[in-house]
Amino acid sequence: MKLKIENKMALNCSHLKTEYKENPVGISTTAPRLSWMLECDQKDVLQTAYRIICASKIEDLEEKRELKWDSGKMNSEQSVHIEYQGVELKSAEIIFWKVKIWNNKKEESDWSDVASWEMGLLDASDWHARWITSSISENPEVSTPASYFRKKFNTGKKIKRATLYASAKGLYEISINGQNITEDIFNPGWTSYQKRTQYQTYDVTKILNEGENALGAIVADGWYRGYLVWQGKKNTYGEKTALIAQLHIEFTDGSILIVNTDENWKCTTGPILQSDIYNGETYDARLEMNGWNQAAFDESNWKGVYTTNFPVSELVSSDGESVRITKNIQAIQKIITPKGELVFDFGQNLVGWVKFKLKGQPGEKITIHHAEVLDQEGNFYLDNIREAKAEDTYIFANEQAVEWSPRFTFHGFRYVRISNFEHEVNSENLVAQVIHSDMETIGEFECSDPLINQLQHNIEWGLRGNFLDIPTDCPQRDERLGWTGDAQVFAPTASFNMNTARFYSKWMKDFIIEQKPDGNIPWVVPNVVPDGGGTGWSDGFGATGWSDAAIIIPWEVYRAYGDVRILEEQYESMKGWAEFMILHSGDRYIFDYGFHFGDWLSFAEYMSYNYNAPDYGYAGAYTEKELIATAYFYYSTGLMQQIANLLGKEADAERYAAIRPKIKKAFLQEFMTPNGRLTSNSQTAYTMALVFGLYTKELHKTGAERLAKDVNHFEHLTTGFLGTPLLLDALSDNAYDEEAFKLLFNQRYPSWLYPITKGATTIWERWDGLKPDGSFQTAGMNSFNHYAYGAVGNWMYTRITGLKIEEPGYKSFTVHPLIPEQLTYAKAKLNSMYGEISVFWEKSNKGLTINIKVPANTKAKIVFPKGYENATASKELGSGKYQFELKNL
Q1: Nearest to residue 406, comparing CAs of 438, 371, 369, 372?
Q2: Please, which residues have CB within 8 angstroms of residue 387's CB and are 6 or more apart in sequence?
Q3: Average pLDDT in the 164-187 region?
Q4: Is 765 a catalytic residue?
Q5: pLDDT of 620
Q6: Which residues lie below 8 Å from residue 349, measured CB to CB, with a gap of 6+?
Q7: pLDDT of 604
Q8: Of 663, 736, 777, 861, which cross-links 708 as Cys (Cβ 3.0–4.6 Å)?
Q9: One of 479, 514, 556, 626 is an active-site residue; which one?
Q10: Are β-strands 391-395 and 280-284 bridged in parallel, bridged antiparallel, or unpaired?
Q11: Of 246, 9, 271, 324, which is closest to residue 145 (Cα–Cα)?
């Protein structure tokens, strides 16, 4: 018998996602977007059509009956963000779906595996629960014990499905029958609570008993009423924490039971004596109540609760990324400092807390303090965390070994100090648990230089440390706020390393709430410094580069993931800021209105504030704030023109197109001489003028020459928060790659690598957080985990490996690598919405090898580096894997 083998192409749909997630629950949009990836083992594969079917039951889906939506065969390459267009969706409804596709090889795939999503509560009338608060008297001026709530109930029937909806004013942890229902922490997250509080949705079917059950919850201060900002403020949003929970139980006989928070719940306090984000947590194990969240527990000593009139209309389904413990790091070194203190080093500046396993005596304490660095003498250094206590205390109940970590606080630290404990503690007793918003890691970068690899490591850990439900400036001191400017400069880098789409989309919704009616945008979101935080600079609104985040971040999310919806949802907010700038620039078209941070923490500011300026002219590194503001005015207006065109808002697009030349003309008249010299003769000024397109064609080359001359004069960068992310692009765009690499590989202060030579494991807030002489910068503002200068990562990925977006979401992309003499190889990998993209180049004695992977349903173009004998200018690529061998000249 002769075996016949068919050479059939494998064509599949995989990685089915709804709103970026696999099988999500609690979806709030009535038009969820569906995405998938194509898998195929041949080259040049494009999708030519798709068909999606949706149903309420898997069996209906399989039989293609009673479908909620059948898209029919749609002739389209689109495989991401396809909106559901079927029967109107209802609260708590579950939808199952699958997809099949056709490709340009005239192949038809099988149906995909089944995916699903579950709707949240879409209307305020769906909430039957009441907000409840503790009836126990509290002093709102100080941190008080966390509130414990419980409710016993009976099911008595066989359960088909059970779904819990919950939220809190404060931070909550919820359990059923003694079992935590989720690994998520810091729920419900931080939003602009005065208008928007998230609720979470949980499938708890497997946790419930057929009979007696108990719901239990702990609620702590969190951002809601804990200490916030740097002025010792407390109770920003309210003086009393609260809980709301609604449990829907569907039985196999079709009946429904709803268990709500109401006046019949019980409350008390327990072992969590205080829990504050800045100050830490105190836990007295002697006050533990074994089984408190189980049905058999005796609750006779518990108090009643109060119901409150907090509106349920402000509850919104959670649409960000859950905060979770993502890593455990063992302590690597035990240290006795010169002061005789017991300190442990975890080897990495991180965000989270310490989990210990120890024995103590009844009533004995152990206190853990957290710090980022040791001082020059090797002692524990706390000055730079300002008023934050960063202190966790545990009181032992008995002599048994216990494992413990806090629940409702977090710390930024590499080192911990153990005090008030007389027993032996060793490294193996302590584990640092790393927490952050659990975004999907999608990007990787590596090269032959270990210092550059450490820089990439520091960028990644800066992201982990500061993307905790909102993008914070720093995680250790009494601040930890959503500074808008810091976030916007880092957005392209963040969106390469992790999938930030849901994270940013959730945060941007609070821009709409916090924005003033005149369009002005605050410095921080959620806005907890409406008075400028006592700085006296302004009311906390309107700084250029900061407020522009309202436009720039949605644009970057659109570019990275092809997400048009964020532009649609944020459009009026974007437009509000654009119109604010137009109004206050007047007929002059110079945006010099109000307060501006300018090129925050630039090298010029360092010199004027902290040093005697050297004779060779560091004053030339200062950039006028009006120049920066007008440059951003021009750039953001240009983005608005593109966005308006994209969304079909023709009148707005024409308006912004007409205004842009006027801004450019005003900029040239106000800030540039006829020979191309800027009034601020600084790296930042030339960088912005070049990257934002403010030079005329005739003078563009002159501007680039002046920038390169300045770099070669100083032999280091002089830029701050706004200039630094653009600096190397300005050089590379104008064929000054040698100067760009000179700055990147510089190890002397100020540079990206200088902190690494000093042992940095994250990005520093200041170029010289630790000065060359070993002393510290000003303690009042000197974070060692502050991601802003990590924005250089975007240049590393797009220039060294050459991976650049052409069509949004990497539907098409370019690979145009720069090959510096300092490196022998570089590689990047990105899990795009369409699949894995990879680039790897390596030099040898013979020449250069370039490997590229292009995912199905995308296209790429390689632009070959110059200097190789058999390299054409460029080559178009379809999907597949490619290798190019280029010979030296």
Answers
A1: 369
A2: 230, 232, 278, 477, 478
A3: 97
A4: yes
A5: 60
A6: 372, 412, 413, 414, 461, 465, 760, 761, 762, 784, 785
A7: 67
A8: 736
A9: 479
A10: parallel
A11: 271
